[in-house]
Structure formats: C-alpha cells, structure tokens
Amino acid sequence: MKNRFSRFLAGMLAALTVLCAAPAARAAGFADVPAGSWAAEDIYRCVELGVLQGQTADRFGMGRPMTRAAFVTAMCRLFGWELVTQSTPTYRDVQDPDVWYYAAVETAYAHGAITDQTDTFRPGDPITREELAVMLVRALGYGTIAGLAQDLPMPFQDVDTGAGYLAMAYELGIVNGTSKTTFSPEKTATREQAAVMLMRVYDACRAVPSLVGVCSGDGSGDWSRYEAVALTGGRIPYGTAAQMSRPAAEREQVFLEAVHAAGAKALLHVTASSSVLGHSAAELASAVADAAADGGYDGVYLDVPVSGEKNQAAFTRLAQALDQALGERSLYVVADAPAWNGGAEPAWDYEALGRAADCLVVRIAAYKSEVKNVVTAPMEPLEEVYYALSRLGRDVEESRLCLLLTTTASAWEGGRERTLDGAQVETLRAEGAHSYYAQRYACSYLMWQEGSGTTTVWYLDGQSVRERVRMCAFLGVDRVCLSDTDAASGLFWEGLS
C-alpha cells in the first residue's frame, strides 16, 4: 500500500503545534539512529514534539521493543489528553499512583484506547503489532467502525483476532503488513516502528483541507480559503439539449470578481432533471461548455440527481463529453458514494468519472431511522465516509476525490423534515436547546419536547467537521466541499480552522 501521507510537506508539519505537553528540545542526534534510516525523520519529530523520549541522552533505543506502558504514555502526549487518576485502579498490576505510567494507563482507559476485558495491563510487556494497531484505532474513536470493518476483505492471512481493527489500521495507512499477505500480529513492535505510526496519526490529525464551495447567495464574500467556488443558477431546461441558463448578470459579475480576486477558480454550477440525460451527451456538453465560456467561468460544477443504471451510464457519458468540450477549463462532478448499507454495488462507473473529472465530489448517502418518534438522521455518517472513500480509492486517484459536507441542518418533527441554516441552529442553541453528540456517527443533534411531539435537529458542528477532515486525511483525500457556503455556521467553520 502506498503511503497515504506522502503529500504532507515536512516543512509545514514542523511548524505545526502539538496538542500536548511542551515539546522537548531538538535532539542533537542519537548514536543509534543512522542518518539514512527509514525511521530517522519520524523518530526526531516524535522527540521534538515531546511524544517520545530517548532511552538515554544519546540513544533512542532503535531496534528495542516498545513496552505497553511506554506506548500508552506516548498516546496521551500525542492526543493531548489531560491525565486522570482513578481512586480505584482499573488493573491489579497497575496499583501504585506514584509509578510513572499509572496516570497514562488510567487516562488511556478513560478514553477507550484500552479495555478491562482482563484485569491486568502488563505494563512492562513488549507491545505487539496487533495491540499497537488496536490501541490507536480505539484512541481515534473508530471502535464501532472497526466492528463493521471486520466483514470487509482482509489482505492478511495470518490475522485471527481483531480483524476489523487491523484492516482499518492498514486501510488508514497507520500500519503496513510485513508482506503482501501477512501482518505478523504477535510480533513485537519496536520503538522506531511506534514512532512512525504515531507520526502518521499526528499528520492526519493536523491536516488542513483545500476547500470547494457552492454559493447560493449574491456571490460576494471572502473566498481566500477556497480552491474553487461554484455559483448556483446554471440549469439545463427540461426537454432541451441546446439551451443553458446562467445566473443573473449582475450576480454573476459580483461573483466572478470576488472569486478571481481571491485567486480561486470560479465554477458554473449546472443542474438539471435526469430527463435531459436522454439527449445527446455531445449536445448537452456543448451547451454547458459554451455557457461557461461565455460567462467567463474557469470551469463547471456538474450536479444532476441521478438514479437507475441507465441514467448513471448516461451521466458518465455526459461527464466524458463535457471533459472534452471544456478544454482547459476544470470539471467538478458530483456523484453518489457507494453505501455500506446500500445493498448491491452501485452501477456508477467511478473509474470513468474519476478520469473525466478534475475533481469527483462524493455525496454520502444519509441515514434515517425512527424509534418512538425520535429521528436519527446524521449528515455524512462517519462510518459511511470511511467506507465510501476507502472503496473509491481503489478506482479513483485520491488526489481527485473530494468529500461533500452538508452545511445545513435537518430538522425532524412529526415525521416531517425541514431544512435549517447554520444561523438558525445557533439561535436554537442560544435559546437553550441542548446539543448532543452521536459518537457512532460523529454528528451533533438538538432534541427537545413540545407537547406530545419530539423535535430533533441534526447538524455538523466543529467536532463533527474535524472528524470528517481527519478521516479524509487518513485516506489520502485532501479536499472537502461545502454544500452551501451561505448556510455554514460559525460552529461548522470551527472544524476547518
């Protein structure tokens, strides 16, 4: 598996601040770490950031086993967890509050990175490759996803336990196999291996995505953080292939000036009913490309709701034709993602769409269930983000993928849905509506009782957005798209800071 973190620039990473204790001073060098070693850079980064320490002033302990106690201590530093001490120790072999690893063990337990399935922790034992991978996946909060992942294909033939955790750690690029078909789960992890894995997690947790946005407003605004922005208002009218409407001229001019001043690409947002896909793909593409050129756009954002294998094939042909018709202009294409719980494999030709589009914007299927009039309807459930992006990564270059994030909120009352913007969500919170967080889906929601009915509002806040950005980084996807830039709340933007 290729290294999914190769695109992170070392210079940028060195400048980032770690969310843990004050970093140690720059190590002058360890005598046992060869300059050309595969792990040298990550060893020194770990020490510099205060995540790991050398065993002595001049020796890191390269090739030496990493103990379980040392690893949970490093995890606490990596994630910036505030150390806790339990009045009643969790493990019978970690009883002394004064021992150097006591608080780290209890803290890792409190955060779910380790469990009490046994009454001993074995702090001095060397940590195995399986234990290390499981701890990191659990520390990231991916335990539920790992439980689902155990049903996915596993490349390793020597894994009997923890299959979902190991498959996920491998898919996320945290660990590698010892060969194409072996993981060697019981093999001891060395200190340098631990350093490399910790830094892979560190890099993903600090990722800052490139932004794509859909603008439904007047076109003005600060677009300096965006690589591309699409202005709504472009439409292929029903029943014709030769016409293409554009936004109002004044709105269009304001938008183009603002986006180009920010150095971003201005895209014409194009939608239509699926009925137009019965027309010639070449005729449709020509009309859309001409409209983009006449308007002075840098490209097209194609978003046509599609269902059915026949229409999906026609949409792919349209994307291919539009790729040719646009020439040097960019093509951003929205496609529905494969769904974990979606049954049969979708008919989308993702490989063909990925070749045609400069950017394939992935729209995640929404969940909706109802129990006793309480609706569960999270936006872009994290488990589906994981499945979709890992699945698409087999057919599409990760550099071409982009995750669509819903900026609006979904309010459910009496079985009916209405859409709220970010400002309305913030108003509800200010008026006293308590916010909850669904750990499984990594999505926030409001809930309150009025009379005999329950109102539930699902939305993405800062924590929700950060979780999705981090998952994207693990899977090599460095772009996210805001479904409506004008609807995004301050809470939403906290996750993109």
* Widest β-sheet, arrangement of strands: 1-2-3-4-5-6-9-15
**Could you tell me the strand content as a percent range?**
15-25%
Structural class: alpha/beta
Poorly predicted regions are 1-27
Number of helices: 16
Rg over CA atoms, rounded to whole Å, is: 25 Å
- Helical percentage: 25-40%
Q: What can be said about the biggest beta sheet?
A: 8 strands, parallel, barrel
Total number of domains: 3
Tell me the total number of β-strands.
15
Mean pLDDT: 90
3D architecture notes:
The protein is α/β, with parallel strands linked by helices and 497 residues long. The protein folds into 3 domains: 190 residues, no CATH class; 127 residues, TIM Barrel (Alpha-Beta Barrel); 148 residues, no CATH class. 34% of the residues lie in helices and 17% in strands. The chain is built from 16 helices and 15 strands. The strands form 3 sheets. Strands 1-2-3-4-5-6-9-15 form an 8-stranded parallel beta barrel, surrounded by 6 helices. The chain has a 5-stranded antiparallel sheet with strand order 11-10-14-13-12. α2 packs across α8 and α13 packs parallel to α15. The longest helix is centred in the middle third of the chain and has 18 residues. The protein starts with 9 loop residues before the first helix and ends with a helix. 48% of the residues are buried.
Features:
15 strands, five-stranded antiparallel sheet, 497 residues, eight-stranded parallel beta barrel, TIM Barrel, alpha/beta, disordered N terminus, 34% helix, globular
